[in-house]
Amino acid sequence: MLNFYRKHSKLLYRKKYITHLILFLSLGFSISLGAQTTDSLQSDPTLNVISDDTLFTSFTTDTIPDETLFEGNLVDTVQTSLWPAFIRSAIVPGWGQIEQENPGRAVIFYGLSLSFLYNIAYNYYWYQETKSYTRKVKLRRYSLLFLNLYALNLVDVYESHRRGDDKPWPQDMFSDQPLKSPWGAVARSAMLPGWGQCYNESYIKSVIAFGAFSYFVSRIYNYEKKYRDTGNVEYRDKRVTNTWYMGLTYLIILVDTYVDAYLYRFDDMIKLTYQYIPDEKAFTFGVNIEF
Fold this sequence. Notes:
Elements: H1 2-43, H2 52-60, H3 67-74, H4 82-91, H5 95-99, H6 103-130, H7 133-163, H8 182-191, H9 195-199, H10 203-230, H11 233-262, H12 266-270, E1 272-276, E2 285-289
Antiparallel strand pairs: 1-2
């Protein structure tokens, strides 16, 4: 039995080292890629850089500024603040990526963090119950994995800011993009059901979404507890049924968040009044669209 534990613990530690190596290699690749991107941008002579004098001249002339002046140079240089995003990711992994408009990476960091924390709590509970050496090894492994992921999460926030990938969502009524980030809203609701609706300023929907999801979670927990205490198969079937209801509710919340963000203030966007006067002696035309 002792030889079995030794052999099993060696295997777990090998997996731990391999996982750590993959995480550190990913971190190094991310840093090197960011450095190469920055160097290539700085060394490229074909890039147009607008000076303050040029910008001042373009606004002091009687001509209308070119649209590419705003789209290709000014808007793209706007970045979010580093420290608010850094502090958010320090509190909840993935929160800072949400603020930096990187919803994909936010969900990955948040989901992996929840998975590691769940395994830490699970193995800690059974280690306290059984004093099993295997549980102790798994507890150490998942703790180290979570610490590595936590550090990588903070480095990702810094690297995104350094590379300029943390652009705020453009809220322009005359833009082709919606006023709210649809996938940013979905990521928020994926992390906490109802958060995306709150981001879309649909506060009543936010309360309903959070309440419905919490209701099914509580029912699943209660049926699971009753099934463990009594062994009655009926409680297990009810637990499975409510799990399906919870998954369906979760999916509806995500779909509603995306649609609500895409159609945010849609009525205001189609009620437009546009009037252009090119010259005092020229004719004037206007368009008024109301649905």
